[in-house]
Amino acid sequence: MRIYKFDEIDSTNKFLREKEDVIEGDLAIAKVQTLGRGRRGNKWVSTEGAALFSFVLKHDIEIPEEEYMKLPLLIGYSLLYTLKKIENLDYKFKWTNDLYLDEKKISGILVEKIRDNYIIGIGLNINNLNLEEAKSIAISLREKTSKTYDLEKVIATVVEDFYNNFQEFKKGKWKEILEKINKVNYLYGKRINIVTFDKEESGIAGDILEDGMLEVFIGDEIKKYNIGSIHISKK
Ligand code: BTN
Question: Which DSSP helix (H) or strand (E) runs through 151?
């Protein structure tokens, strides 16, 4: 494993995306990011004390392409599993891959594909107290427990647990993993607003299904929504 550490960088995802010779296991860690990126082009507040890192997973040609649709879910699940080991709190998994604690976001995940590699970027609010404009919607572990944590150790555990969980996934353990995800499904039973490319609908979220889609009860219909094609806001 090659580790690249930065006191300050624009974005660890961007660093690995632009690196010509990336290999599986490459890990980039930053203390601060000046252009931390979230999904859908959002900014990710990246102040000191947060765990800000990205690592590389090589696309395995033996795994069918559509299986990789489940990757964001698997990363979220794995992160929740690691956090539970650090502090056994009541984290929730918000489809597709955010983690929540006390109704606030504790972590965000950005997966990007470049050539044959997935760049998995994780922002995890650990020791940071200065959440700036995200304060009303975000929480850090330290805010919750008043403890401080060894960031490099946290990051190493997250990455190691992910590669192990990915092996389990490859061995066909998706059903067991999905069952665990659905036990902590943050959206379940909540009214959500779904914005697709062409329309906006409102419904009650149900389970996350075998193919990684979210079921939503809209009137007397059950619809399935795909990762990536929708924007959800809780009403
Ligand atoms: C989101 O919830 O929108 C995803 C946020 C992902 C943030 C992380 S921080 C490390 C890595 N580098 C980035 O620029 N983004 C990801």
Answer: helix 151-170
